[in-house]
Amino acid sequence: MKTMQRTQTRRRFLGFAGSAAVAGAVPIVVTVRPLQATPAMLSSAIRNVVGEAAVRTGKVKLEIPPLVENGNTVPMTVSVTSPMTDNDYVKSIHVFNEKNPQPNIGNFYIGLSAGRAQVSTRIRLADSQKVVAIARLSDDTFWSASVDVVVTLAACTEELI
Amino acid sequence: MPSALVNVPKTARRGDIIEIKTLMSHIMETGYRHTSAGEAVPRDIITSFTCRYNGTEIFRADFFPAIAANPYVSFFTVARDSGKFEFEWIGDNGFSATATAAITVG
To answer: pTM of this prediction?
Structure first.
């Protein structure tokens, strides 16, 4: 009789512990971290554009506010110092990020007829992160600039209401 | 119904560097959002934008989900001849829209 009581208590305890574990597991399932690109994805996205060429810092100016309240629409201007002559001009500008779900932001193909190597657009940033702009010149050298941006309200992965 | 807004100077002197501003109404759904029921919202973005000046491509862009809704792009070109700018946006689910603007170069 005594043993049976003990078994019942043990069984009840195990049952309780089991349901508690299930209940405890639920919040873990719900709080899945949003999908995020990694620095490795950023460098492979850059490699896809530049190949094996070296990327040097300079010539490119990336204008983006250092502190952003709303990551859903962030104004950005990229300009490249270039004479834009027949033998020295900018072919394209590529913009990347570090922590959005995808490392690419946009590719802009300019060419000689632009007269001025400058592009403006509005982008989304999912988190405080680094934004990188890379320019390809007519001699196929690559130049870059990067800016660290602090974002207070993130974009891209928030739930719909 | 897509609606485009393009801003090109009506007149310019030959050789002037002019700025072209474009805005296209589009949701630019990233494909990374979920409804409150947990269903993924499928991606619906503009993937490509092209500008031609008298038939010659002068600017092209590839867009990714990180481009904000209602994509705005501004860029520059040298005013060479009077004529027409043609703009074209292409995207997911067969999205296609065009716009034109005229310029007189004196």
So the answer is: 0.84
